[in-house]
Amino acid sequence: MSELEFNVSQVQWAQYRPQLREIRRQVFIMEQNVPRELEWDDKDETALHVIAVDSEGNGIGTGRISNQGQIGRMAVLREWRNRGVGGTMLRKLLWMASQAELPTLYLNAQQSAIPFYRRHGFVPVGDTFIEAGIPHQRMQLRPNSTTAAPST
Description:
Layout: E1 6-11, H1 13-31, H2 36-39, E2 48-54, E3 59-65, E4 70-76, H3 85-99, E5 106-110, H4 114-119, E6 122-131, E7 134-141
């Protein structure tokens, strides 16, 4: 499979809820053992969401950004990692945030994902902490980072 065999789109939670939840269930609950009660929250209803789908329309990745500018729930199915899906989703979320004129963007990165977010203009802020039993680092988007429309 080539990196171009997927597409990333902004979607509405109400319409795509089953697909978005299934991706997050597989990645966070099943693979990373995040407790169900920590995965599901009330932010999904008001957040902006993206979904990555393969050439057959199957969900392979998702992410969201809250009205407060927090990017989160970035998840890519294992077999699609390191193929550009996460970067494409993040660029789409950054572009959506610029269109919505959201405040300074931030996220809580799993420690293993810090290099990924650094490549996209985020810098660490403060100390590491444990969230859902996983080491995390608060990161903030560096000023003047690109928010150009992503190619999908």
